[in-house]
Each structure stands twice: as structure tokens, then as C-alpha cells.
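User: Let's play a game. I give you a shape written as C-alpha cells, and you guess the letters that built it. Ready? Here's round one.
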């Protein structure tokens, strides 16, 4: 167990933090939604019912959507774009390890590399593909939860007009929710790229060595 935790400590801690913060969001979201229902003279709903509500689904996936979009674009942009002095960029002058041709003879080479052909082509781009698939799924669920929540709010207000899924995609409310999250994610990435030029964190692979020149590019 000690060895497992040592080898996987980063993912274990991040899973725990994610689970705790998600649980906290769900609990406080449940109370917030019930407060809204009570304001309209409606009875509170149990936690299990809240988990399938538009309020819950929309809140979770509008944030996940922006995270996966950010990571997918960042992975692609760092293939061909550079930033002098940033630890997040490939070297400006020297060949980078990530650009070397995949060799099936390399010890421990994954199965797709040994198999070659279209499987290798797919595998070479599998990281960005995975992020964009997760983004697409989250985008869809955000919209699905959003239209459900919108129609719930209309019913609470005594209004009969409801929107379909496709109609909700064309509303300013949906795009306001999306864009306010997207811009914050791109700002956070920009901050890491630029701040890593001038600032250091000893021991972190996201930082250059403490004694590295500001112009030194890459880890």
C-alpha cells in the first residue's frame, strides 16, 4: 500500500480533493435549490431527487465543460506554439523528446505503438481526442441540465412557456454560463504560461529550476 501511494500519490490526492469538493457542491446546491422551492411555496425535495434535477446537472457540467475544453486546446496549442522562457513550452531551438518518432523497439512501448498503422495514428492524438470527447459530453449535459432547470424555473413562476433542448442552445443564458467559465480557464492557463517565465517553485515539474535564466524555455 505504501508503494502504491508513493507511485500514485498525485492522482490519489486529486481524486480525494475532487470528490470532497464535488460532494460539498452537491450538498450546498441541494439546500440552495430547496430554499428556492420554499420561496415559491413548494415542498423541499430529497437529496436523491436533487441529483437528477436540472439545477444539479447544469451546475456540475457547465464547469467540467470548460475544464476539458481548456485542456484539449492547451494540449493542441503546445504542439506547434512556443513561449520563450516558459516551463510550459517546448524548447525553441533544440528537438524535444515528445517529438521523437515512436519506436516499437523501445522498451515498454505501448501496444498501439507496436501495432502501428491507423491504431498508432489514433494513439498519437488520443490525449486531445479524449479531452474533446469529454468536452462534448459535458457540453451536452450542461445544455440538457440547463434547459431542464430553465423550464423548472418557468413553472415555479407560473409561466407556461418552455424551451426545447435546441432552443435553449440558442439563448444568451446558456452562452453566458459557458463563456464566463471558458474565459476563466484560459486566463488560468495564460497565468501559468507567463508566470512560469519569471517565478519558480522548487521541486515542481511545472517550474524551471530555481537557478534557470528567465529566457530558458522548457522544464
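Assistant: Ready! My guess for every position:
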Amino acid at each position: 500500500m505504501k508503494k502504491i501511494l508513493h507511485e500514485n500519490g498525485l492522482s490519489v490526492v486529486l481524486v480525494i480533493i475532487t470528490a470532497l469538493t464535488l460532494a460539498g457542491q452537491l450538498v450546498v446546491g441541494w439546500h440552495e435549490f430547496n430554499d428556492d422551492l420554499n420561496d415559491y411555496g413548494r415542498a423541499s425535495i430529497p437529496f436523491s431527487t436533487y441529483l437528477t434535477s436540472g439545477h444539479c446537472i447544469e451546475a456540475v457540467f457547465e464547469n467540467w465543460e470548460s475544464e476539458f475544453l481548456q485542456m484539449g486546446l492547451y494540449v493542441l496549442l503546445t504542439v506547434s506554439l512556443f513561449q520563450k522562457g516558459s516551463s510550459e513550452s517546448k524548447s525553441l531551438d533544440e528537438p524535444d523528446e515528445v517529438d521523437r518518432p515512436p519506436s516499437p523497439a523501445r522498451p515498454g512501448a505501448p501496444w498501439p505503438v507496436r501495432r502501428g498503422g491507423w491504431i498508432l495514428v489514433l494513439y498519437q492524438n488520443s490525449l486531445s481526442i479524449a479531452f474533446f470527447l469529454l468536452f462534448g459530453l459535458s457540453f451536452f449535459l450542461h445544455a440538457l441540465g440547463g434547459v431542464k432547470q430553465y423550464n423548472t424555473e418557468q413553472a415555479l413562476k407560473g409561466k407556461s412557456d418552455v424551451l426545447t433542448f435546441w432552443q435553449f442552445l440558442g439563448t444568451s443564458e446558456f452562452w453566458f454560463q459557458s463563456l464566463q467559465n471558458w474565459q476563466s480557464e484560459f486566463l488560468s492557463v495564460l497565468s501559468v504560461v507567463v508566470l512560469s517565465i519569471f517565478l519558480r517553485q522548487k521541486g515542481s515539474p511545472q517550474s524551471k529550476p530555481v537557478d534557470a535564466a528567465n529566457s530558458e524555455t522548457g522544464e
